Amino acid sequence: MLxxxxxxxxxxxxxxxxxxxxEVGKAPEFTPIxxxxxxxxxxxxxxxxxxxxxxxVQRASLWSGDRQSxxxxxxxxxxxxxxxxxxxxxxxxxxxNSTDRSRSGSEAMAxxxxxxxxxxxxxxxxxxxxxxxxxxxxxxxxxxGDGSVRRNEKLxxxxxxxxxxxxxxxVARIEGSQEVRVNFEVRELLVSGFVRPEDISRQNxxxxxxxxxxxISYGGRGxxxxxxxxxxxxxxxxxxxxx
Length: 243
Description:
- This protein is an alpha+beta fold.
- The chain is built from 5 helices and 6 strands, in the order ααβαβββββαα.
- 20% of the residues lie in helices and 40% in strands.
């Protein structure tokens, strides 16, 4: 049974290694932009725009409330619209804790002379056993701990996000992605969350701190990112080994 499990693990690792070997000498591929929520929201049919038609006012008038007019509101509000998400994070946090505790105690009791009873009992005890020291106990314990957390994060990014859904209360759910490849390394930025229409500026922008349930991911993949990760065997060993 153990041999069979070992063979199954080796086969799984071999398949994973073969998949990785297929990427040797090739640049990392981009994630397809079709098939996602953004693409589906932009290509699907939306409700026709209902513009108020006043008597004597032409559709081509600059003062109409149409989104296409000069003074119309072009902020993203419908499914498939695009807005700009501004991410400017500059957070700092520092926490330090220290604890120290110690305890010691000792007890001793000897009965070398107690009406001659220890000597009488010693004769009956095997070997060199003696009752001269009836009780002798000691103990000590100590513990100490130190912990500290220090974080300094600074991130400044801008990414276009698409309205993928509009909730009944008017809140829009947005999702955006951006990938940039430099040589053999891909930088990836993902953002999603919920946005109120009134929080969108006249420039059709919104800051990350006004996005509810914001999910922001900034990372990369490629040769450099791959070298910074421990090997699969080391990751498995770190999980399985108890020491």
